Structure formats: structure tokens, C-alpha cells
Amino acid sequence: MNMRIMWKLMQELSRLRRHEDWSRSQLVSAQADQLHRLREFAYARSPFYQRFHSGLTDRPLGELPVLTKAQLMESFDELISDPAVRLEDVRAHLAGDNDGQRYLNRYWVNATSGSNGQPGIFLFDEEEWVMVLASFARAHEWAGVRVSLTHRMRMASIASVSPWHMSAQVGAALKSRWMPALRMAASDPVPQLVSKLNAWQPEMLVAYASMARVLAEEQLAERLQIHPHLVFTSSEVLTGETRRRAQAAWGHSPFNQYGATELGDLAAEHDTCRRMHLFEDLMIVENVDDQNRPVPPGVFGAKLLVTSLFGRTQPLIRYELNDSVRLASEQDVCELPFGVLDGIQGRTEDTLQLPTAAGAAVAIQPLVFHRILDIPPVSAWQVVQEAPDRLTVLLSGSSDGMSEQVLAGRVKEAIGAEGAREVQVSVQQHAVIAKNPSGKALLIKAYPRSG
């Protein structure tokens, strides 16, 4: 690890720890000050924001237009605050044999897989990249692993190993003599992963949530024999059953993280209360419905609008993340000033639209399927909408004796209770559930929507 980056990371973590002693009013005041400075910078340096916020530069945040990923990519060169950056050149850099090297010898480049049809490219200079690393390191500290130059911990990461994926770049950046790391692709065959993990014997295990469940089943079957002190899950919805299986396998519940390629970690569980707190000293998070209207605490929104308070290279102001989450309505007992994220349903793209008897459509949220499919003794499952009125449930690693007909009936009953008319449901056994290019096993695959 670059020692200058490590030194800056330690300094940033020290600063972030002090924020945890703020009152809520201090946090809100700091947000307002940072937002003011962010907007002044964007209006001075970004031609896109000069146009996008024209006539609105003195208006409150909630009255500003929403920035989508499609808009960001369409106006990439205008939005970036450094005129030397050009999208065509960044794409050439990604296509070249650069293995995660910095663009223009200055910028860390992260790219999304584009699994929702719209890939994105995001740049960070050194100060911003240190903040991204600090967000991940804070999540580890909240789980009880204080970043230190005096304590050594062996880590294993099972995620994407693409050189442009954030998990791979963060893992490579944090790898050092203090945290030797084994990085493996989530798309690798399970027996191969098990063999490597058994040889490595990690003290910390970091994995996509779906992979954590698969590995927990391998541990319970005694093929995997590791004893990590800490298990972290990220990038996918951590279901209740996955959490229970991981606890049965390793003796403790995994710590969940919620992050995005665009910003780093947005929230993480704290060991004091085991609830997920938003990193509101690094960003402003608005939970809204599909019309961008605020939803109250205790209610799932359709998406998040996130404003990065530390981003300057590629300013993100009211940037749309298509994740359906719920903010807690009650006061937390942890005494942190940050809001609590108490439910994650997944991406808007994971919501199925099924026909009703009246010929309209009803939205079926992912939690409807979690309630049914987290119960059977399987290592993985996936719901695929083959047609507007036809679903296939794929199961992997299921035990003998499980009735596919009964399970299909329960799924039909559950979606019928949500208002959907008669839908055809079939259940299929698969050796493995197919993964996307970054190694994630999507729980829900919706039928392509028109328009």
C-alpha cells in the first residue's frame, strides 16, 4: 500500500471518529456548510451544473433537478470539473491493459457493470479516493476492527476482481503487510473457493451476500473449515435467512454494508446496536417516491437521491440511486448523530410488474419473495420473470424431499395476496445460479419493460 495514502487514511479516520460525537444539530450544520461549498465549486467549475441549475443556484437542495446516471454519462465531459478529462479517453484507458492504473496519473477510475442497461464511469482524485477508503475502513471499525499499523489481520474477499470494479480497487488499496488479503472472483467455482479459503484461513471474510450464504452452507456441510472472527456482506440484499445461516456456520452474525460505486460506503452496521447507520457526514441522503417526493421514516421509498459532500472531480448533486430503502422512524439507542437505515428491498429494477384482474399492473416487491424463498433448505434461489404473467423459481443446493409443487403454490398465493391475477409459476432445480459479469447472483430478474 502507498504509505502516503495510508497516512492520509489514518488522518481521515481520526477526523471521522470525532464526527461520531456530534449532536444532530451539529451534523445538520456541517452538512449545510459543506453543501454550500460543493455548490459554489460546481457552479464555478462544471459547465453542466451551470446549465442544469440555471436560475436555481439560490434554491434549496430539495428544489433542484434530479441527476440520473444516463444524464451523467450523456454530459460526462461537461459535468467533470477538470477540462483535461474526456470520456472518450477514459474509455480508452479502461479498454487498455492498465490493470487499475490511474487515468492521467491522477484519477482512480471505477466502472459499474451496467447490469441495469446503463454502465457508469466515476473518477476520484487522491483526496476523494482516501475518503472512499475511509468509508470502507469506518465500516470495519464499527464492527470492532480498528484500522491500525500494529495489528495484523488476514482477509479474504469474494467479489469482483475486475480491475475497474470498486470492490477490487478498494481491496487492492487496503492490502498491506497489516492486512494481507486473498481476493477471489465470486464467479469462480465453489469447490475452488472452498479449497483456497481452507488454505488461507482468513480472520476476516468479505463477500457478496449471496456468496456468504453459499459459503455458510459449505461450512455447515464441513467442506469449508474456516473460523473468521468477522464476516462482512455487501452489494446485495442480506436476507434474514442468509444472516441466520452465516451465524449458524461461524458463530456470529455478519455485519452488513451498503455501498455504491459512485460514492463508496453509504452505511454500515455498528456493533453497539447492530443497526445500519448512514454516513451523513459524507453525504446527504433523500428517500423519495417514484415522483421524487420525500417519503416519511418507516416507509419504503422508490429510490434514493444522494449528494456527495466530498466529491469535486465529478460532483454528484441529487444523484439517483435506484434502491428501495426504509429509514427508521424511532430514535436510535446508539447515540450516533446519523440516521438509521432499517430496511433494504433492493433495486427498483428488482420489483416485478405483474398484471391484475382489471388489466392494470401491480408492483411486487422483492420482500414478497424473501418471505417465501428464504425458508426452504436451499443454498441459493432466483426468481426470473419469463413473461409478464410467467415466473420461474430457480433453486440451487436444495435438500431431498422438498415439494416443488407446494413451493410454487406458496409463491402464487403470496403474489395473489398483493393483487396480481393468476400467474404461472414453475420451480426448477439448478446446480448453480447464473451470475452477472461482476459475480453477483441476482435474486430477481424482471421481464424487460417497454419504454
Topology, element by element:
Layout: H1 3-19, H2 24-45, H3 47-52, H4 69-74, H5 76-79, H6 87-95, E1 108-111, E2 121-124, H7 126-142, E3 155-159, H8 166-174, E4 181-185, H9 190-200, E5 204-208, H10 209-220, E6 230-234, H11 240-250, E7 255-260, E8 264-269, E9 276-278, E10 283-288, E11 303-308, E12 319-321, E13 323-327, E14 340-347, E15 352-355, E16 361-364, H12 366-373, E17 380-387, E18 390-396, H13 404-417, E19 424-430, E20 444-445
Parallel strand pairs: 3-4, 3-5, 5-6, 6-7, 17-20, 18-19
Antiparallel strand pairs: 1-2, 7-8, 8-9, 9-14, 10-11, 11-12, 13-14, 15-16, 17-18
Helix pairs in contact: 1-7, 10-11, 12-13
Walk me through what this model shows.
The protein is α/β, with parallel strands linked by helices and 451 residues long. The chain folds into two domains: 3-348, Rossmann fold (3-Layer(aba) Sandwich), CATH 3.40.50.12780; 351-445, GMP Synthetase, Chain A, domain 3 (2-Layer Sandwich). Helix content is 32%, strand content 23%. It has 13 helices and 20 strands. It has helices at residues 3-19, 24-45, 47-52, 69-74, 76-79, 87-95, 126-142, 166-174, 190-200, 209-220, 240-250, 366-373, 404-417; strands at 108-111, 121-124, 155-159, 181-185, 204-208, 230-234, 255-260, 264-269, 276-278, 283-288, 303-308, 319-321, 323-327, 340-347, 352-355, 361-364, 380-387, 390-396, 424-430, 444-445. Helix 10 packs across helix 11 (240-250) and helix 12 runs antiparallel to helix 13. The longest helix is centred in the first third of the chain and has 22 residues, at 24-45.
